[in-house]
Amino acid sequence: MIAMDSIPLRCLYVFILLGMSFASYNETELQLMYGSVVDWVHFSPRVDISRQCRFGHPLRIAYFSRHSGTLWDWIAVADHLGAPWTRVNPGLFQTYGVNTTDATAIWEDLGHMLCHIADILVFSDTIPDARPLLLGGCTTPIILQITNRFDYGISPSDQDAYRQLMSDATTRKHVWWVVNNPYEVLFISQRGIKLPLDRLLLLRPVGVCLLPPPQLAMRERPRVALVQPSGSYHLENTVIAPWVRSQNLTDYVRMYRQHYGGPTVLAHHRGVITVPYQTSVMKMYEGLTAGAVFIIPSPAFFKNLLDIYNNDVMVFCCRDLLRDRPHDWQEFFDWYHRDFINAHILYDSWEDLYGIIIDREGSAQLIEEKRAIGIDAMRRSRQNTLDGYSSLYRSVSQQACEAAGTEDVLSQGFVRRPHGF
Question: Could you tell me the residue ranges of all domains in the chain?
Fold first, then answer.
């Protein structure tokens, strides 16, 4: 119980009671705001953010992603921004590459909630997850954070409709485009979609992994690591692992399966044998940040391997990149991009790789030099990314504030409350 034996406290208590007694609702105003709603089953309103905008409070973000790696990266970005956010996993209510029919149904059932769940919406990893909201015309600012082809999972028969939707989305001023590697813009443009340069940014991953620290055995440090990805078509599984065994190199190579423990484990080893199957993967950025050194085929040997092996032996996302851009393909391929290539150890042949594996003492200094180069490269890249997201957040927040109090596709009749309250 609060002691009421002082005059100031008694006056404050009376003031609160009077305020509560006179508090009421304005039915005319409520009719203006909600009188046009006809579907109360699915209705969810857009929040009035005029107060936040007036006082400069950070706006809320909803982050849509199925992928733990992009989620960890976003956690670091959101912490840098000081932005309140929530995560939505689209895998809980829709399939990969959601088609037009299903996207329409999701919009009709969940559109109000998903569109109004926050003041800014970010879709990451799998961009077709944004299809219901783009199809329905959600006017909340949307950031499409492309990390793995903008049409991942879209069936061939549905490509035309999907590309038409995405072309239309490029004209919407509240839709922003972020690519986390240079290849994505080329891939999109080759499919006839012209991205808006004033709403397009290249912001690479910051390289954060939030797995718990592993227990590491010191005897593993002199050995190189070979991570065998899931799926039988990776060169690590089809060629390199059998080659390691046939060359009696198992004392020099620690072979891991898909769940290897994260970048800290990779950094614990002398190096990590890797064959890129995408132009970029989160493992590279996370590994370089932690101090891992990747051992990859040289550009010439990588091209040679692609000529020798098809996708049944050596899966690679983007063979057309090297075919269509024979002279500048490395500009679109982060593993071989000038920003990162000097952090890796390159080999020109299987004999060259054999020498790197067995020469523990001779490669020690090179490994440490590469480790330092990789850490520094990611430090610069990370700062560019964080600065970019700060600028983007300011621009999108300003856009959201300018639209505050106006009608949107779902909240017809919405009006600003008097004085922003």
Answer: 50-203, 218-381
Residues 220, 224, 225: CA angle, nearest 5 degrees: 85
For 224: left if phi > 0, alpha if psi spans -120 to 50, otherwise beta; the answer is beta
Instruction: Walk along the chain (421 residues) and give the pLDDT tens digit of each residue.
Output: 445 556 655 555 555 554 555 567 889 888 877 887 888 888 888 888 989 999 999 999 999 999 999 999 999 999 999 999 999 999 999 999 999 999 999 999 999 899 999 999 999 989 999 999 999 999 999 999 999 899 999 999 999 999 999 999 999 999 999 999 999 999 999 999 999 999 999 999 999 999 887 888 777 889 999 999 988 899 999 999 999 999 999 999 999 987 788 999 999 999 999 999 999 999 999 999 999 999 999 999 999 999 999 999 999 999 999 999 999 999 999 999 999 999 999 999 999 999 999 999 888 899 999 999 999 999 999 999 999 999 999 999 999 999 887 777 776 443 344 433 3
Give this prediction's pTM.
0.88
DSSP class of residue 219?
A: G
Sign of the four-CA dihedral 152, 88, 210, 396 = positive
The reply to whether 50-203 and 218-381 are identical in fold is yes
CATH 3.30.200 fits 50-203, yes or no: no
Determine the topology of domain 218-381 in CATH.
Answer: Rossmann fold (3.40.50)
